[in-house]
Design a protein that fits this description.
Elements (H helix, E strand, L loop, with lengths): L5 H9 L37 E5 L2 E4 H15 L5 H27 L6 H14 L6 H8 L5 H21 L7 H13 L4 E11 L6 H16 L4 H8 L10 E6 L7 H4 L7 E2 L3 E3 L2 E12 L9 E10 L8 H13 L4 H11 L5 E7 L5 H7 L11 E3 L2 E11 L7 H27 L2 E3 L2
Antiparallel strand pairs: 1-2, 1-12, 3-4, 3-7, 5-7, 6-7, 8-9, 8-11, 10-11
Helix pairs in contact: 1-6, 2-3, 2-9, 3-6, 4-6, 7-14
Length: about 450
């Protein structure tokens, strides 16, 4: 996938763990590799048995979908399932399901589709990046009585919206040399000033979720997080920012870039503290402060590296026999002294996924790989990295250390991703404004 859109894709489907039930009574089962974006007709004979929560143009959102989405929200964010919690959640859940319908409708209009295999691959990615064994998500949802189609539908909508953005909205993205220079100059000017490692939950205000209701929801989330619920899970389920898919991670934010009330709130916070709900613009925001430092401090995770790796499957049809697995592991740890040696051995072993890896930022690697290579000397084989279904060995070939100031390519990519995200959000707002929406709850 073009690196121009890497962050947008990550923000859309990288760590999705929340969803709405797929088309409720009318959704067909996943099978084969057919497109999942076929419109669902309103039920005819079964219509009297379906409670309608909303109508979006000519498609319905059922009460069953709303119930499934709330159940998943509360289960994954560890929020108590009480009538009061349900009352507060309904407006945001309905808003999310309406947005899904609008995304799918626009995708059909643009003739953009995703396949069953793409959706299932996204589920596998979620499990892998969260350190789960294959099938863990299904088992978790089965245990809680939540239909797996709930997750499939959310991923389908987000995945197809990524494609709509790539294929039809990206042409509107323009980044100028002056914009790039401005960002770099500002980064240099801000070196040494305070900056904060933040995560966020963003609850937009809307007609169905006015400020008071959004504040109540935000306060409830703060209470649950302070009581032990993971901030990342709450962000994935409730935040409407593009950062939701990565657990609300905003990265390092310079003090001068803090918006509105956050400019006063964040500097007064202690590390690992959760803020109260704060209104910023047209949304209620909750932030978690994970760290403080002086701006421009080199970040090991921002280093650009090239790698070689050897992947030894331990599960599935390609799993290596135990004796061969151990023999290969011993050779990998003993023989390669350079990346050229590592690549030659990868060719000899000939397992999928083995060989040279194009340049990548350390922070963009999966957590287990990132932790193994962030301080790994060049031309040294890592200790074994146990990933889902395999043993992995990595070697860093080259490392370009972070200087604390982004280079032109980094800034261009960042600005392109920001603009694409903004255009996609504006497009969704336009679709919502033009749609015929009837909320019946």
């Amino acid at each position: 996938m073009n690196t121009r859109f890497a962050a947008f894709v990550c923000a859309s489907i990288g760590l999705i763990a929340a969803a709405g039930e797929a088309r409720a009574q009318a959704q067909r089962p996943l099978a084969g590799t057919q497109s999942l974006t076929t419109p669902q007709p309103r039920a005819a004979a079964a219509a009297p048995a379906i409670s309608i929560a909303a109508v979006v143009n000519d498609e319905i959102v059922t009460l069953r979908e709303v119930q499934n989405r709330m159940a998943l929200f509360m289960a994954t964010a560890r929020i108590d399932n009480t009538p009061e919690t349900q009352r507060r959640l309904i407006p945001q859940v309905v808003d999310s399901l309406i947005d899904e319908r609008l995304k799918m409708q626009e995708a059909r209009r643009q003739k953009v589709t995703v396949t069953t295999e793409e959706v299932r691959s996204a589920v596998n990615t979620i499990e892998d990046r969260n350190g789960m064994q294959p099938g863990t998500l299904r088992a978790m949802m089965d245990e809680r009585g939540i239909d797996m189609d709930t997750l499939y539908a959310q991923i389908e909508a987000d995945s197809v919206w990524v494609k709509v953005a790539q294929e039809h909205l990206a042409r509107e993205v323009v980044v100028t040399a002056a914009e790039i220079k401005s960002v770099i100059d500002r980064a240099k000017a801000n070196q040494g000033k305070p900056e904060y490692l933040l995560s966020e939950i963003v609850i937009p205000l809307s007609l169905t979720l006015p400020e008071q209701a959004a504040r109540e929801l935000g306060q409830r989330l703060v209470q649950q997080i302070r009581g032990g619920a993971p901030f990342q899970a709450a962000a994935q389920q409730f935040s409407q920012s593009a950062t939701a898919a990565v657990g609300g991670d905003l990265g390092w934010v310079i003090q001068n870039d803090l918006e509105g009330e956050l400019a006063k709130v964040v500097p007064a916070m202690a590390e690992n503290q959760i803020s109260e709900p704060v209104r910023v613009g047209d949304a209620i925001r909750i932030v978690a402060l994970r760290g403080k430092r002086a701006s421009g401090t080199p970040d090991p995770q921002a280093a650009a590296i090239t790698m070689s790796q050897i992947y030894l499957p331990t599960e599935g049809g390609r799993a290596l026999p135990p004796e061969k697995l151990e023999a290969f592991a011993e050779r990998i740890q003993r023989e390669p002294k350079t990346c050229e040696d590592m690549n030659k051995l990868a060719v000899e072993i000939a397992t999928p996924g083995s060989g040279p890896i194009p340049p990548v930022y350390v922070g963009a690697l999966p957590e287990k790989v990132r932790n193994a290579v962030v301080k790994l000397p060049v031309n040294k084989v890592s200790d074994v990295i146990n990933v889902t279904g395999a043993r992995l060995y990595a070697m860093v070939c080259q490392r370009q250390a972070d200087t604390g100031v982004p280079n032109e390519n980094q800034v261009r990519s960042m600005l392109e991703n920001q603009k694409l995200n903004n255009i996609a959000r504006q497009k969704l707002r336009d679709l919502r404004r033009q749609a015929l929406i009837d909320v019946r709850l």
